[in-house]
Each structure stands twice: as C-alpha cells, then as structure tokens.
Amino acid sequence: MSAPNFIDYVKFCSRSGKGGAGCLHFHREKFIQKGGPDGGDGGRGGSIILRGDSQHWTLLHLKYRKHVIGTDGNPGEEQDRTGASGKDEIIPVPLGTVARDAETGEIRCEITEDGQEFVLTPGGRGGKGNAYFSTPTHQAPQHAQPGEPGIEEWIILELKLLADVGLVGFPNAGKSTLLSVVSAAKPKIGDYPFTTLTPNLGVVSYREGLSFVMADIPGIIEGAAEGRGLGTRFLRHIERNSLLLFMIPADANNIQTEYDILLNELRKYNPELLDKKRILAVSKSDMLDDELKTEMKRELPTDLPAVFISSITNQGLVELKDLIWSHLH
User: Of 207, 209, 154, which is closest to residue 319 (Cα–Cα)?
Assistant: First the structure.
C-alpha cells in the first residue's frame, strides 16, 4: 500500500439509465379484423450498484473515473414483448467504504462485508405498454407510458480502514517501526517528521495461530484539527478501530502532556473516539533502566493501562500483544 496508490477519497457523477417507453400497438394479422392491444412494457434503466470486494484495499481504481453511467432500458415491443433492461454498472469497493451524497452530506450506505451490495442510484422504471391498460370495459387503450428518467447525482466515497488496533501518536513516535516489527508490513521509516504519509495495515500474529489487524495512522500534531501538519484527514481510519494504541516515546518532555494533546485532537475531530478502549505504549524504552521506569510510572496517565516497549530490542512486545488481545476479546 504505497503512498501514490493509497486513495481513500473519490468524488464522481453517478447517472442511472432511463427506463424504456411502453409500446402502443394493436395486434394485426390476416383474417383477424380487430386485434387487441399488444404493446409491451419498456425495460428498466441500468442502476449504479456498490459491491463490497475484499480484494480491493483502496479506491485507486476509481480515482480517474469521474462519471459512472448506467445504460438506458429498451422500449417495449409488439406482441407483449418487454424491452431489455439497461445494464447495471457494478462498482467494486473495499470493505469499510462509506457512500454519501456530495450535496447534502447524507450517508447512503456503509459497505462492511464481502459481496454486500447496495443500489446507489436506481435506474428509471420502464413505461407500461397499452396492453397493460386493457380491461373488459376499455378494450382498446390508445396510450402507453413513457419510461422514467434516470437519476444524476454526485457521490463521495470515503474509505475507513477496518482494523482492530489503530496507532495514535506524534510523528517519530515509533509507530511505523512497531508495525514493521510485529507484522509483515513494510512502512516507510525515517528520522524526520511525517515519514508516514498514508495509513499502513499489518496483520499481527498472536499465540496459537491467532492474529489481529493493526493500522499505522500518519502522525498527529497539536493543532491538527485546525489543519496544521497533515490535519485530521486520516483520522477517519481510526473511527472503526476497536482499540486505540497511543504511542509516546520515552524521551518525550512530558508523557502526560503529550497524551492530553493527542486526546484533545481526537476530541475535536470526533468526540465519540474517546469512547474507544485505549492502551498507552511508551516506545524507545531500551534507553531506560529499571529505576527510571519506576520513576516514570508515577507520571503516566492513570486512566489507561501502560507498557514500556522497544521495537529495536523487542522489549515488552509480548506483553503488549497480550494486553491488546485481552482488550479486544
């Protein structure tokens, strides 16, 4: 999931097909003087349908697709033949995709399961042919319905990664390093701010073949809710995480202060994020001796469990996995 290919937001015009017109026709055949009405119904217009696909991880395949158009239904024909329906346009999307109306912001659907389908923009219904309106007292209807027009609307798709654990922390807190050590993910790692420019996912192996999914979210800084740094664009990806793992390095000036800043940025973005379970990992702890750890424990936040870890020496990683697993189940 490299930076240029990770697309988690697209906007496109969704236009369904119009329904075919009903047919106005009367049966004509040799030796039959007054054939009855036999105009068939028009076909339904093609719909725009979202379908969950576990093989897609981003919205990259829709990045340059600005218009998604369903085909029109065919008109009805004589001899009560219904016109062919327009072809539905099926859009595969990754699990965790949210569709919303671009004008009103209304959420249309959330795709969370493989194979789940949702009719985003329904096609127009086909018109009824004159055979439909025939009754014993009205045996020669001279009218048929036109097909319903299709719908044209602008849709926004947002991807919210489905992960069990979301890593939250300032740039250079060691989030990417941790993910690279406990999973097979290979995020970009450097000693400068904002090394991680896109979220990364990794599957973390646990005991007896068990596993959980961890997401590395690009670093937050103070003022992110006001647009500083990378802003809060990627915080949507932790809205679906079951557990938030706060990471603060051992060489931070004040762990409690940094934790409060991170918590405040989450509160500004979405107060509901504070209802999620939380764990604190003090990273880069290989530089601490037992005496320093004991002293630092007195200054740690008291409202969540904490563990000292080092991704370089693997210190505390087993304890961290146990702690995460116990909070997930």
Answer: 207
Over its C-alpha atoms, the chain yields an Rg (Å, rounded) of 29
Of 100, 99, 93, the C-alpha closest to 115 is 93
Summarised one tens digit per residue, pLDDT across range 250-265 is 888 888 888 998 888 8
CA distance 147 to 286: 72
Distance CA 90, CA 120 (A): 10
- Give me 8's structure tokens: 């988690």
Distance between CA atoms of 197 and 180, rounded to whole angstroms? Answer: 16
Question: Where in 19-151 does DSSP place strands (E)?
Answer: 48-52, 67-69, 89-93, 97-101, 107-111, 117-121
CB neighbours of residue 18 within 10 Å? 25
Quote the CA–CA distance of 193 and 87 in Å, as a whole number: 49
Which are the contacts of 173, defined by CB distance < 8 A and separation ≥ 6? 219, 247, 248, 249, 283
Asked whether the CA dihedral 307, 310, 316, 319 is positive or negative, the reply is positive
In angstroms, rounded to a whole number, what is the distance separating the alpha carbons of residues 10 and 21? 34
Q: Note the pLDDT tens digit of each residue in 196-252.
A: 456 677 788 888 778 888 888 776 655 544 554 444 556 666 677 788 899 888 888
pTM over cut 0.85: no
- Could you tell me if 94 and 1 are in contact, meaning their C-beta atoms sit under 8 angstroms apart? no
268 CB-contact burial (10 Å; exposed 0-12 / middle 13-18 / buried 19+) = middle
Both tokens of residue 189? 């790692």
- Which two tokens mark 166? 């979301």
